[in-house]
From TrEMBL:
<dbReference type="InterPro" id="IPR003593">
    <property type="entry name" value="AAA+_ATPase"/>
</dbReference>
<comment type="similarity">
    <text>Belongs to the ABC transporter superfamily.</text>
</comment>
<keyword id="KW-0813">Transport</keyword>
<dbReference type="GO" id="GO:0015833">
    <property type="term" value="P:peptide transport"/>
</dbReference>
<dbReference type="InterPro" id="IPR003439">
    <property type="entry name" value="ABC_transporter-like_ATP-bd"/>
</dbReference>
<dbReference type="InterPro" id="IPR013563">
    <property type="entry name" value="Oligopep_ABC_C"/>
</dbReference>
<keyword id="KW-0067">ATP-binding</keyword>
<keyword id="KW-0547">Nucleotide-binding</keyword>
<dbReference type="GO" id="GO:0055085">
    <property type="term" value="P:transmembrane transport"/>
</dbReference>
<feature type="domain" description="ABC transporter">
    <location>
        <begin position="24"/>
        <end position="263"/>
    </location>
</feature>
<dbReference type="GO" id="GO:0005886">
    <property type="term" value="C:plasma membrane"/>
</dbReference>
<dbReference type="InterPro" id="IPR050319">
    <property type="entry name" value="ABC_transp_ATP-bind"/>
</dbReference>
<dbReference type="Pfam" id="PF00005">
    <property type="entry name" value="ABC_tran"/>
</dbReference>
<dbReference type="GO" id="GO:0016887">
    <property type="term" value="F:ATP hydrolysis activity"/>
</dbReference>
<protein>
    <submittedName>
        <fullName>Peptide ABC transporter ATP-binding protein</fullName>
    </submittedName>
</protein>
<dbReference type="GO" id="GO:0005524">
    <property type="term" value="F:ATP binding"/>
</dbReference>
<dbReference type="InterPro" id="IPR017871">
    <property type="entry name" value="ABC_transporter-like_CS"/>
</dbReference>
Length: 326
């Protein structure tokens, strides 16, 4: 019997109108013309099991953050749906206390922490407001959470600007943990930090995961971190998942030419020795994605079929992948 996922996304898509200032929107409306749209996320389906960490990788602009914000419930989807433990997501998010079960840790801890609030309030207020902790016990509760993320109780009365980048990210993680989440979404949570601090934060997340059944979605363009932390990995290209596999399998035997290209760019891994010569090139504009397989203009394996027929994401070679040549 398969375990029910904590979270499930079904066919999620999100488009944005571009070039649309108020005047342009009005003109377009009067002329009954549609503004051009960028398809940031297209038809993405995925699940996260209890205790599982799902990685999402891809080059800049492939839709990782848009997907993260839809999963966190802070950006509505244009199409598709989500479920939390099988429950409809709209109903789940409408219950503010329940919605706390999904938390997000952002890339830039300084801009995501209120500069006018002390750490005790930043970390503990949501737990108090939603009745998880009595107000009188807030600081003791927060001190305990700060201990879990490696900060001492002296942090309670300080403001975000009094901490280093790594400490601020610990505060961001503490704020998320304080409301007992079941799903933590980390969107480039270590990208802004020095390499040694990145390692500390990644290890902290691994410790937290080991101590609880916390599920995570970990978004990063850093394949080294993804490999270290994640159980499964979804590779995105131009808004679509092109490969989804167990981490060990993905790194040992990448199936999609785009995954191979990404891995080829990793230090110490050379797939070119196996005869794969990726064409690096630029990512095409998401405003006008290439027909057929979106990756075909950069793919050394592309044939005429790839130029016209979009490959479906299908179960192949022990994973999901969308390529006519696997
Ligand atoms: N609010 C918006 N309005 C218009 N276009 C947007 C908006 N948000 C994202 N996009 C576009 O959607 C696409 C996906 O962006 P997104 O930020 O999700 O990608 P990403 O993979 O997270 O990139 P990065 O790694 O650089 O953060 C991009 O083409 C981006 O320009």
């Amino acid at each position: 019997m398969s375990v029910q996922p904590v979270f499930e996304a079904r066919h999620l898509s999100r488009s944005f109108a571009v070039g649309g200032g108020p005047a342009e929107r009005l003109t377009a409306k009067l002329r009954r013309r549609e503004l051009p749209e960028v398809r940031a996320v297209s038809d993405v389906s995925l699940t996260v099991a209890p205790g599982e960490t799902l990685g999402i990788v891809g080059e800049s602009g492939c839709g990782k953050s848009t997907l993260a914000r839809m999963i966190a419930g802070i950006l509505p989807a244009s199409a598709g749906s989500c479920a939390f433990h099988g429950q409809d997501y709209e109903a789940f998010l409408a219950d503010r206390r329940q919605a706390l079960k999904v938390q997000m840790v952002f890339q830039d801890p300084l801009s995501s922490l209120n500069p006018r609030m002390r750490v005790a309030e930043i970390v503990g207020e949501a737990a108090v407001v939603h009745g998880l902790v009595p107000r009188a016990e807030r600081d003791t509760y927060v001190a305990g959470i700060l201990g879990q993320v490696g900060l001492g109780p002296e942090a309670l009365g300080r403001y975000p600007h009094q901490f280093s980048g790594g400490q601020r990210q610990r505060i961001g993680i503490a704020r998320a943990l304080a409301v007992n989440p079941e799903l933590l979404i980390c969107d480039e949570a270590v990208a802004a930090l020095d390499v040694s601090v990145q390692a500390q934060i990644v290890n902290l997340l691994m410790d937290i995961r080991a101590a609880s059944r916390l599920s995570m979605i970990f978004i990063s363009h850093d394949l080294g971190v993804i490999r270290h932390l994640c159980d499964r990995v979804a590779v995105m290209y131009l808004g679509r998942v092109v490969e989804l596999a167990d981490t060990a399998r993905l790194f040992a035997e990448p199936a999609h030419p785009y995954t191979r290209m990404l891995l080829e760019g990793m230090p110490r891994i050379s797939l070119t020795r196996r005869g794969f010569q990726p064409i690096r090139g630029e990512i095409p504009s998401p405003l006008a994605p290439p027909p057929g397989c979106h990756f075909h203009p950069r793919c050394p394996m592309a044939t005429d079929r790839c130029k016209t027929e979009r490959p479906e994401l299908r179960a192949v070679a022990g994973r999901l992948a969308s390529c006519h040549h696997i």
